[in-house]
Design goal:
Elements (H helix, E strand, L loop, with lengths): L1 H28 L3 H18 L13 H10 L9 E5 L10 H10 L5 E5 L1 H8 L4 H10 L6 H13 L1 E7 L4 E7 L4 H8 L1 H5 L1 E7 L1 H7 L2 H6 L4 E3 L10 E6 L2
Parallel strand pairs: 1-2
Antiparallel strand pairs: 3-4, 5-6, 5-7
Helix pairs in contact: 1-2
Length: about 240
């Protein structure tokens, strides 16, 4: 199945490359230097794809412009980050099985992560009403966390995403931003007005909130920080935005 999917994605990428080559070749013939260089890069990518390899395997050897060409300008399907998820039975959750081991061997050259999930176990956990019941079941199965948690964390890591929180009297919300996002960009995830009129962010570190248990006690301990536009959001931050539009 993996080989079939890889083949179909590779063929689609080749189609994309060939269309772009046809377009660039006309400008390259006119002697435009930038287009000549681009045509050379496109032909290298085409040769790589024709060898049956995914475009993402080229990324470690490319400069920033080459990475942008593959991932942004061309948006090649086989350049996208990849995570493999194996649905195994209960016995396979600890060390996998012959199928998962074969997959690991097949993708070893990609440096891709392979995670194990048992859909049967996940279905049972989903039917349990309390966290205590879920935790007891996980311990009985020899597991630390549900498979869905592993999948979410692996996906966030692969896509270079983090989570920050907002907390009010009625609800607590989690928001997803790219790693390296600054405070105004994070505010814009909630509403574009928050980003346009950003003034400052009041930030509580996740571990500080766990220690002091409430926003009031965090403030009393002097652990709430006031940050400006250049603040880079940290995974787990609890944030309150001040803005004016």
């Amino acid at each position: 199945d993996k080989e079939i999917i890889d083949l179909e994605l590779g063929l689609k990428d080749l189609e994309t490359i060939e269309k772009r080559i046809d377009k660039v070749a006309r400008a390259a013939k006119a002697g435009i230097k930038s287009e000549v260089q681009l045509l050379e890069s496109l032909n290298q990518i085409k040769a790589h794809l024709e060898s049956g390899k995914a475009a993402r395997l080229m990324l470690p050897n490319l400069d920033p412009d080459g990475v942008k060409l593959l991932t942004k300008d061309l948006s090649l399907l086989t350049a996208k980050p990849t995570l493999y998820v194996c649905n195994v039975d209960e016995a396979g959750m600890q060390g996998g099985n012959a199928h998962s081991e074969a997959l690991k061997a097949a993708v070893a050259h990609e440096n891709a992560e392979v995670i194990l999930i048992c859909a049967g176990i996940e279905a049972q956990i989903a039917e349990m009403e309390s966290e205590a019941e879920q935790q007891e079941f996980l311990e009985m199965m020899g597991l630390e966390v549900p498979g869905k948690n592993i999948l979410i964390h692996a996906s966030y890591s692969l896509l270079d995403l983090i989570t920050y929180f907002t907390a009010g009297e009625k609800e607590v919300r989690a928001w997803t931003v790219r790693r390296g996002a600054k405070a105004p960009e994070a505010a814009g995830v909630i509403h574009s007005d928050f980003e346009k009129g950003f003034i400052r962010a009041e930030v509580i570190k996740y571990n500080d909130f766990l220690q002091y248990k409430s926003e009031a006690k965090v403030k009393e301990a002097g652990k709430m920080a006031v940050e400006g536009k250049e603040y880079v959001v940290v995974d787990g931050d609890i944030m309150h935005f001040r803005f004016n539009v």
